[in-house]
Amino acid sequence: MSKQTSYTRPQTFWLVALRMLIGWHFLYEGLVKLLNSNWTAYPYLMDSKGLLASYYQDIANNPTILSISNCINVYALILIGLGLILGCLSRYASIGGVILLVLYYISHAPFIGAEYMMPSEGSYLWIDKNIIEICALMVLVFFPTSQIIGIDRYICKALNKK
Questions:
Q1: Which of 153, 138, 148, 140 lies closest to 9 in space, CA to CA?
Q2: CA distance from start to end of the chain
Q3: CA distances from 40 to 19, 94, 96 (A)
Q4: Is the pLDDT of residue 133 over 80?
């Protein structure tokens, strides 16, 4: 962790709120998948379009790799969510969230002519909720609050005493 940053109370409030809300989104998505014994990324991966579509479809078509991918996806969502909510290693959680969302975006990019079987929440062109959440996570990378409100505050204190 780097130097202590000071924000105004409203800045701190809204940055922490952003961190918590994104954390909840990740945590909830992971828990829903974990608790649904029938969940698999198979249909999502098979519906992939774009440059890496064959890569995603290869993952889906290999039961062993698909199982590993499902497990990584579920636990990454949960760990990222917990890290953001608790403010524990939140910079790493934010970067992990960006990586995961980039993988989702690449799989189902909202480009002209791309038609997906998976239902969409709206009509997008280039910019979708993944890109917006990626940008919000990058705000959290560059304007961290977990050293102010979060477990990282205690980790930083413990590391600075050594």
A1: 148
A2: 14
A3: 27, 24, 21
A4: yes
